[in-house]
Amino acid sequence: MTAAAIEPSRGEAARDDRVAHRPLAARLLSRPEVGSLIGAIVIFALFMAVAPPFRNVANVGTILYGASTIGIMAVPVALLMIGGEFDLSAGVAVTTSGLSASLLAWNFGLNVWVGILLALVVSVAVGAFNGWLLFKTGLPSFLVTLATFFILQGVNLGVTRLLTGNVATADITDMDGFHSAHTMFGSEVTVGPVTLKITVLYWVVLTLVAAYVLLRTRVGNWIFAVGGDAAAARAVGVPVKATKIGLFMAVGFCAWLSGMHLLFQFNTVQSGEGVGKEFIFIIAAVIGGCLLTGGYGSVVGASIGALIFGMTQLGINYAGWNPDWFKTFLGVMLLLATIVNVYVKKKADLR
Question: Residue 14, class by beta-carbon neighbours within 10 Å (0-12 exposed, 13-18 middle, 19+ buried)?
């Protein structure tokens, strides 16, 4: 049987028919993103009550901006986790992308757009390399991407210092193509009292496209299949290798997009940036309903998880609380989200 010929079995069709006839409440509670949605409502209500600046409509743009910078990466990381893999290099890959565009354009006297396109090649190649190495070595993706994390971290610092004598790239404001690139990756629009960064648009579009692919296409079925049982998926014709490498490349693409915003928002990139952010992306995905075992999750939930981060980061400051407690919040949310996800998955399987 070929991958193109894969169709839902009679058992799956019967199951889908049973799902369609469940009460609405039962169907909603069996969704993987239900825990993150409830959590978002609780966080919103909490900070609305204790942080007066949180109620200011003008701060909505700031909250959404913080959420979008996490969400752009949380969406592909969630897809990868549903496919049964991790990418611990995602945080530093964002920095690698920004550094690549800036250093290549600056040192070779190129138009900024040439640097941007070369950075895209570098970012997607890093993702493809992670996927290729995963299958070539047979090692867990945790170890493969942990190695890539250290490699990229060292390259980011070493190459930047070698070429600039500093830990940051030069300011590229005066280079050809900068202003059009800034419009594409670092612009903003004001709607009434709310200022929205372009990353919010990218975040929403990525979420919608990823949700459609995951839930409405054959590729989405493949992602769930390779995450649930790769051997069984391969036996029925699913292109396991291509699917997983494609997911790593999707992480690379979004790292490029996030890296371009990093560069054109600040006109320079710090080579040590991004370390530790990979855990935030993973936590956002887990809060959104992804299981660490793969085969289950939601990109919409991952975006809601990113929104929770955005609300919490600013809410703590607005409430006048000690921001040191934010890391404690991350740990608690990760633990609770994992427990809720396992519970919801068991309930969904029983139904």
Answer: exposed
pLDDT per position as a tens digit, 134-179: 999 999 999 999 999 999 999 999 999 999 999 999 999 999 999 9
Tell me the pLDDT of the chain averaged across its residues.
88
- In angstroms, rounded to a whole number, what is the distance separating the alpha carbons of residues 152 and 88? 11
Partners of 189 in the β-ladder? 196
What's residue 20's pLDDT?
Answer: 47
Across the range 21-48, mean pLDDT stands at 75
Taking the whole predicted model, whether its pTM rises above 0.85 is answered as yes
Place 11 in a pLDDT band, splitting at 50, 70 and 90: very low
* Domains of the chain with CATH codes: 32-346 (1.10.3470)
The Cα 343–Cα 338 span in angstroms is 9
Residue-wise pLDDT for 199-248, tens only, equals: 999 999 999 999 999 999 999 999 999 999 999 999 999 999 999 999 99
Print the SS3 string covering the chain.
CCHHHCCCCHHHHHHHHHHHCCCHHHHHHCCCCHHHHHHHHHHHHHHHHHCHHHHCHHHHHHHHHHHHHHHHHHHHHHHHHHCCCCCCCHHHHHHHHHHHHHHHHHHHCCCHHHHHHHHHHHHHHHHHHHHHHHHHHCCCHHHHHHHHHHHHHHHHHHHHHHHHCCCECCCCCCCCCHHHHHHHHHCEEEECCEEEEHHHHHHHHHHHHHHHHHHHCHHHHHHHHHHHCHHHHHHCCCCHHHHHHHHHHHHHHHHHHHHHHHHHHHCCCECCCCCCHHHHHHHHHHHCCCCCCCCCCCHHHHHHHHHHHHHHHHHHHHCCCCHHHHHHHHHHHHHHHHHHHHHHHHHHHHC
